[in-house]
Here is the input.
Amino acid sequence: MGETLFALEDLTIDSVRGGERRRIVDHVDFSVQRGELYGLVGESGSGKSISMMASVGLAANGLDVTGGTVRFRDHTRPAKDQKALRGNLSRGVSLLFQNAKGALNPFMRVGAQVERVVRQKRRNHDLATEVDTLFRVVGLNFRDLGQKYPHQISGGQAQRVAMACALATEPRLLIADEPTTALDVTTEREMLRFLAKLCAERDMAIVLIAHNLSLVSEYCRSLSIMHAGQVVEAGDLRSIFARPLHPYTQGLINAVPDVDSPRELVPLIGSVWGGPQGIERCRFSHRCPHARAACEMGRPPVIERENRAVHCVLYEEAMA
Amino acid sequence: MSTKTPALEVRKLTKLFFDPRRPQSISVGVRGVSFKVERGEVVGLIGESGCGKTTLGRCVVGLQEPDDGDIIVDGTVFSALSGAAKRKFRKAIQIVFQRPETCLNPRMSVFTFVREAMRNFDTAPKGQERSRMLELANLVGLKEDALDRFPHQLSGGERQRVAIMRALACEPLVIVLDEPTSALDVSVQAQVLRTLRDLQSEVGTSFLFISHDVAVIRYICSRVMVMYLGVVVEEGPSELVLSKPAHPYTKALLAAAPRVNLLPDFGLSLRGELALGDVKPQECPVRARCPLAHERCHQAPPVTELPGGQRSACWLAADLAADYSRPTLDLSQKVSL
Here is the structure.
């Protein structure tokens, strides 16, 4: 086991809108090892992006971070202190967003944008070579693309430029928020391979946020699956895929059509936030085929089994 | 009309977009595509963005005027009609877009919105609109109370169902579905796909299903066409094409599709991205990115007919179809507790 680079402990976030409080991230807990590609999966609205943004102090307006701690390298900070957490961005965390074209400044040549990041981070450096190297690392040619504006390049290229900006700070942790959703399938695969390669070569950990289970399945070693602000299953990816235990994980796997065999789809019923949102209960019970009274009786127990932790009462009896 | 005539036939459809800033590079769009959609058939159209699949869909429903070629709906040349005759014929072919929120009217309730389509083509007598609407809502899996809601009160999946319902209200022969599920979450996508498949067996409307997701196409379509830079590079029964592809591009698409299994990385991958500057007319459009490209590919390859109705535009088609072997995952083991 490597050393832990980044960890969220009991992160809890409420949304406050018009005096109404809703718990949208509920005691999220996971840790990422050095140089690891870690998956964070869930449907939209399950709180994956919000948790990660809050961990670098970028919780949106109207969100109230009520508890938990964020550990990065050798510092542990309370999640409430968003301002201090923002410092993580200059201490080795970088961000990569879904919509790369939106993340780039439309009025600036892409070469200049990368250069700006390099200049902010390091002084008295050979800027031109640095930028050139960064372009090469992400698989682009500075001479071809450096003078272009974001609208003149393709989506895949834009994502690579955003990547060059993110790498300019030599991060230890890259938070990649659905980096391939806007890309074509063939480009998507290339991008993921590239991320996996970077991870291995640069001793950089990546948290890959995705709504598509199959996407993370090939490149991550461990993952967390989130539903309605709660982690439902987390741990070793191979074990989870070989035998998903939580009904939500099973549902997600059954809901995705398979390329290699036309099997029947079993859609998940209901929606992420469609159920009762009490704090001390399982929030998946309204969509769960195995729901029982115990689901409402309290926070689901965390059962450690087969290299993973599953948050579900179903496995409690089996343990006893 | 006899039932033998295909619901939709497209002959040599061409629609090209010339880019004046890059006079050297090849124009994008659709170049000389022909195909047929039989009654009650679901035909899939796959390809990357920029390959012309959406343009093809838009030309088929008449949203774009093709440069050349004919669109024949139920034996009548749709593209030659004009005026009232054309208007009457539009009923026969309907479209569902990728993003339902942009095609619904925010100021109309679902009922008014769908009723407009019904009235436009007189598909339901005045008194029976409500009952017909309930029938349709039932078909697409909408609850009755959703009929009086407005688009902002519906979820993404429900909105897409409304769009499908509107298309159905016209009682068309063919519905063009342009990436109907790619804006939806996985669980909602599964619901909509299930609905579409059930619907298809109940109503018997033909679908032209446009998507970039190979798995979705495999799930829903009986026949599939693979498009690259405006031409169909491979077509055939989806079972065959997606298990024994006979074109490097199809192989690469399949290899790139994300999978929920633990197989090692395998197969072909294309080089780089779709770059128009690298493609010359008269040669194989995939050549610039194809890992198997060789001298002969400077000439456009002929379409090779393979057994089982599979057709592939590649010099190596026969060999490729023969040696596609990959371990298959045992899915008899159901996921269970």
Summary: The interface with chain A takes residues 48-49, 155, 185-191, 193-194, 212-216, 218-219, 239, 242-243, 252-262, 265, 269-270, 273-274, 326, 328-329, 331, 335-337 of chain B (CB under 8 Å). The first strand of chain B starts at residue 8 and ends at 17. Residues 325-337 of chain B have pLDDT under 50 and may be disordered. Chain B has eleven helices and twelve strands.
